[in-house]
Amino acid sequence: MTRAFPNIAKCWKNFISRLTAYLKLLFQGNTVEVLPALAGPVLNLGGGGPDVEAAIQWMINQVRGTAKVNVVVLRTYGGNDYNHLIYRMSGVNSVQTLVISNRQDANRDDIVQKVLNAGVVFFAGGDQCQYIRSWKNTKLEKAVASVYRRGGAVGGTSAGAMILSDFIYDACACEDPIETKDALEDPYQNITFTYNFFQWSHLQGTIIDTHFDSRKRMGRIMAFIARQIQDGVSRSALGIAISEETSVVVDKYGKAKVLGRNAAYFVLGDHPPEICKPRTPLTYSDYKIWRIPCGDTFDLNNPPARGYYFRSVKRGRFNSDPY
Q1: pLDDT for 31-63, tens place per residue?
Q2: Of residues 141, 165, 202, 211, which has the active-site annotation?
Q3: 158 is annotated as an active-site residue
Q4: Signal peptide span per the entry (predicted)?
Q5: All domains of the chain, ordered by start, with CATH?
Q6: Which residues are bridge partners to 120 per DSSP?
Q7: What's the mean per-residue pLDDT of the chain?
Q8: DSSP letters along 224-261, please?
Q9: Annotated catalytic, 244?
């Protein structure tokens, strides 16, 4: 009997060793990172040019509570220059740039998991046409939406902001972007739109444009707005037009605030255009325009009943300076 005890002890030791190995294998294969509760969701819409660092920090602060968050930067080309900028901000646990230039990568489980582990997702500038081609209807798109639903932050600059609107000017087969003169002369030539990409509750019925002041894009966003109504997409459309070195941040209640150096414009078309058809200059009377300077706010869910001015386009020409 006494000689059996060592055998029992040895068997028990082997059993514990095998059980431990089994449990370790089990949990390694099923462990999900414990993510902090997030206090959003919020949005950050950047107008291009030098980034508004205060707007990126605002995103982080709005969602993180007392914890630190992971930040993922998404782009279809370029480097990881955002990593150093964002990592030194307050409340950041990690920053990773993912260059995802094709649909195959946008459906990879390892990439999707990195996005799901983030509390903040930021789209770099680039080409909205390439973003749509590479990411629409992929697992990546669903993962970004999941971060937002969980109370996270989603932002972008330039093309990375334009893809966040409800109606997206998609640069027509990735050709050179249309500008104001041509858009007003013919609101259909080389102007196409993408729908049902990212759909955020406070951006329903919107179309975003960027680099606004420096490239004088008021006319083109007016053409974009007219098209949504003329084509039967919507009975009204709100343009969110953001200048360079400027951001529009949107809190979880739909209140937008302008940060940065310049102004943002909110341009509303709430009635059908008089003339909006191919090969014909646009005629559209009485757009409502709110010019919102840095530090001021705009309620996206209830546009203010005052503070706007009217501008019209007749035969492709403004009736007066729209800015």
Answers
A1: 335 577 898 899 999 999 999 999 999 999 999
A2: 211
A3: yes
A4: none
A5: 38-318 (3.40.50.880)
A6: 71, 153
A7: 89
A8: HHHHHHHTTS-S-EEEEEE-TTEEEEE-TTSEEEEEES
A9: yes
